Amino acid sequence: MAETPRFPVPPTRRRIVAAAGGVGLAAALAACGNSDDSSNDASSDTSSPSSSAPATDPTTSDAGAAPSTSAAAGGGTPLGKTSDIPVGGGKIFADQKVVVTQPTAGQYKAFSSTCTHQGCQVASVSDGTINCPCHGSKFHVADGSVAGGPAMAPLPPEKVTVSGGQVMLDS
Ligand code: FES
């Protein structure tokens, strides 16, 4: 016959801590289990990073980057001559914070010159890319898309009008 203690075992500090630790461990394991479950779920969704890259689909920026070369001139800010913009390159207009490129002869595009990484002004256009001096991001002259990080988002398009050999920034 088992002996029943006459008095209940008093709750010592060690027992309380151990019990709390056990509960905490169980909670932590449960949390890890949930975390693992959700990360497994998330890993199946890696093809759609909608939460980290909103509205920056480079496939759609091309259309927005197209200058309105056929638009009637009027009310724009003169930037310079088309002859100042090299084919395959571009020119930065620092005062207007715009970079105008000419990916192919006669095709002009314009983008904000503010780097999408941390807001520096891009400083050069060379070898088919627009280059930020701060951390080395590069953007394609053709569509402003990222050619090299750390920037994740393309340069936003700007609208320019080309008329009579002049490039005008639409207002
Ligand atoms: Fe342009 Fe960081 S601000 S690369």
Walk me through the topology:
Blueprint: H1 13-43, H2 58-65, E1 77-81, E2 90-93, E3 98-104, E4 107-112, E5 124-126, E6 129-131, E7 138-140, E8 146-148, E9 157-158, E10 160-163, E11 166-169
Antiparallel strand pairs: 1-11, 2-3, 3-4, 4-9, 5-6, 6-7, 7-8, 10-11
The protein binds FE2/S2 (inorganic) cluster.
Keywords:
171 residues; alpha+beta; Rieske Iron-sulfur Protein; four-stranded antiparallel beta sheet; binds FE2/S2 (inorganic) cluster; oxidoreductase; dioxygenase activity; iron-sulfur; 2Fe-2S
Description of the structure:
It is a single chain. The chain has 171 residues and is α+β, with helices and mostly antiparallel strands. Helix content is 23%, strand content 26%. The chain has a domain of 118 residues: Rieske [2Fe-2S] iron-sulphur domain (Rieske Iron-sulfur Protein). The protein contains 2 helices and 11 strands. About 36% of the residues have low confidence. FE2/S2 (inorganic) cluster (FES) binds next to loops. Pfam families: Rieske. Its cofactor is [2Fe-2S] cluster.
